[in-house]
């Protein structure tokens, strides 16, 4: 059974940095796609960044500040977050997906990121 475990959230001052990590266990092959989503307080889930063999994509709100990367050997995905803003406050979730032979995806448990002075 595939499980994703996240780490790295916390409280940080505006302008600071955090690095989120997400590692998968129970998978026998590399995932096709990996990504990070977030849910701000009282708002809907939104995509932050994604990475596939074709490249990376970012939400406009985080471009130039966040960097997504992956380690296929460890089945892990990371999110380096720099120049954090209060509006980045949210619960962050990692997602890993297989596109074939049957589309299926998995979610982490979520980690709280709070940006506040």
Keywords:
117 residues; mainly beta; 4-stranded antiparallel sheet; 0% helix; 55% strand; globular
Can you offer a commentary on this structure?
The chain is an all-beta fold and 117 residues long. It is 0% helix and 55% strand. It has no helices and eleven strands. Strands 2, 4, 5, 6, 9, 10 and 11 form a seven-stranded mixed sheet that branches. A four-stranded antiparallel sheet has the order 1-3-8-7, with no helix packed on it.
| Overall spatial form | globular
Q: In which range does the helix fraction lie?
A: under 10%
State the low-pLDDT regions, or none. Answer: none
Number of H/I helices: 0
- The averaged pLDDT comes out at 96
> Alpha-carbon distance between the termini?
40 Å
Please describe the topology of this protein.
Blueprint: E1 3-7, E2 10-12, E3 18-25, E4 33-39, E5 46-52, E6 55-58, E7 66-71, E8 76-81, E9 90-98, E10 104-107, E11 111-115
Parallel strand pairs: 2-11
Antiparallel strand pairs: 1-3, 3-8, 4-5, 4-9, 5-6, 7-8, 9-10, 9-11
In short:
With 117 residues, the protein is an all-beta fold.
């Amino acid at each position: 059974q595939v499980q994703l475990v996240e780490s790295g959230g916390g409280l940080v001052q505006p302008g600071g940095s955090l690095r989120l990590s997400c590692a998968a266990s129970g998978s026998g092959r590399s995932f096709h796609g990996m990504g990070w989503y977030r849910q701000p307080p009282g708002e809907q889930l939104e995509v932050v960044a994604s990475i596939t063999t074709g490249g990376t994509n970012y939400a406009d709100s985080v471009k130039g500040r966040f960097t997504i990367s992956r380690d296929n050997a460890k089945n892990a995905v990371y999110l380096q977050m720099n120049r954090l803003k209060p509006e980045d406050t949210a619960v962050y979730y990692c997602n890993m997906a297989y596109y074939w032979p049957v589309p299926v995806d998995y979610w982490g448990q979520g980690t709280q990121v709070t940006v506040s002075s």
